[in-house]
Each structure stands twice: as structure tokens, then as C-alpha cells.
Amino acid sequence: MDYLLLPAFSFFIGIIVGLTGIGGASLITPMLIFVFQVPPSIAISSDVVAATLMKVVGGVKHWQQKTLDLEVVKWLSMGSVSGSLLGVGVLHQLRQSGEHNLDNLLLRLLGVMILIVTLTALIQMLLMTFFPKVNLPELPKLNLKTNQGRFLTLLIGAILGFCVGMTSVSSGSMFALAIIAFFRLDARKLVGTDITQAAILLIFTSLGHLTLGTVDWSLVIPIWIGSVPGVLIGAKLCEITPQRPLRFIIYSILMMVSWKLVGQA
């Protein structure tokens, strides 16, 4: 593998993440699989660990700024961490049983998850662009002061966390959609809550993937070297770049990537 190319590609992806907010896992994991021919199990585990640093740095910053909702973070995290560890446990069982080709299974799961995340975001963007006055039915707002609200929050977190534990995808994007749908936070607290929750989730998910023995530090460190400065530059460019055309192009690319992942399995 050319380890000079990996930081360069990661830098480019970091810019995209900082520029558009589109999750890095949807881009970095397929890059490792298709460009660098990394087995899916190693690509997913290494990407989970690589993504943790950026999320933790962002989460600490939002914690200091108080631009997050601690109650939402707490209850979503309790559900997502449990779900994620369950997902890692399933990977352990599949690996030990040997009944399934783990890499082929993960290719399909990864492709399906990226497709779901991309289609959801694309539909939302198209509706906001072409039908801004359409009043879609709203999902009920969850009240975390009630047992029902807490239980449903734990359940949502557990389902999405399980998907993250299995595939590394959606630690940010799908949780952001859930926070928008069920908690109606303002824009600043939405971003901070999403990043902080994802940071907690990925810390535990990373520990789980480390026990699988599929984390390759020779991949993680070059990704850090490239993606962290890329994210910072992308965040600066975000102020002057038109978002919707750029997002549409990237969503279209992600849809093709997801079909290729499923088809290659």
C-alpha cells in the first residue's frame, strides 16, 4: 500500500466532511476497500478508531461552549453504546462460528447502510429545495422527563448504535436526523449534541473493535494525519461554498458506491 496516498485521500475526504457535514465513515471505509484493497472487516474497525479522535475533539469543544443538550446526549448515549457493543458482539460470534464469510456479509451491510443514510438525506434535501412549503407530518417530540420518552430514546439509540457497531456508518448522520425529528433542538445545539453523542458512542465502539483484532494502526494514523487538517480547512471553506449542489453531487456518488458494495459482495 502507498502510505503517502492514504493521508492525501483522507485529507480530501476531511475537507468534504468539514465542508458538507457528510459523515466520514460513508467515504473513508469505501475508500479503504476499493482504492487500497483493505478487507472490509479491517476497513470498518480501523475507520471506527480513526473517526473517534475527530468526534472527541469536536465534542469537547461543544461541551466547553455549552452548545449541546446534556439530557439528550445522556439518554441517546446509554442506548447507542449498548446497541453498538451488541453489534460488536454479533461480529465476534460471526467470526468465531465461521459459518458466514464475514467480509462479504460486511460489504452488503455497509452498502445497505450507506444507501439508507444517503437516500434519507437526499430526499430531505430535495424536499427542502423544491417543496419548501410542504408541511410533512411531524413525528412526536420525545419528553425526557417521562419514562416513555426515556425508553423510546434508549430504543432509538440502541438501534442506530447497533448499526454503527456492525458497519461504522451513521454515528453522525442518522443520529442527527433522529435528533431533528424527535427533539427539535436549535441548530447550534443540534450539531453539538450530535457530535458529543457520537464521540461517546465511538469511544466504546472503538474499544469493542480493538477486541476483534481487526484494527490496523498503519491505516488509522495516516487517516488522522490527513483528515484532521482537512476537516478544519473544510469548515473554513463552508462559509463561501454553495452547499446544495455540492451535497447533491456527493450523495449521487455515495449511492453508486453503495450499489457497488452490495454488488461486489
From TrEMBL:
Swiss-Prot/TrEMBL keywords: Cell membrane, Membrane, Transmembrane, Transmembrane helix
A Pfam family it matches: TauE
Transmembrane region(s): 12-35, 106-131, 151-183, 195-213, 219-238, 245-262
Subcellular localization, as worded in the UniProt entry: Cell membrane; Membrane
Superkingdom classification of source: Bacteria
Keyword presence, Membrane: yes
Topology versus the membrane: Multi-pass membrane protein
A cellular component term, taken from the record's GO annotations: plasma membrane
Keyword Heme appears in the UniProt entry: no
PANTHER family referenced in this protein's UniProt entry, alphabetically: MEMBRANE TRANSPORTER PROTEIN MJ0441-RELATED (PTHR43701), MEMBRANE TRANSPORTER PROTEIN YJNA-RELATED (PTHR43701:SF2)
Similarity comment: Belongs to the 4-toluene sulfonate uptake permease (TSUP) (TC 2.A.102) family.
Protein name: Probable membrane transporter protein
Organism from which the protein derives: Dolichospermum compactum NIES-806
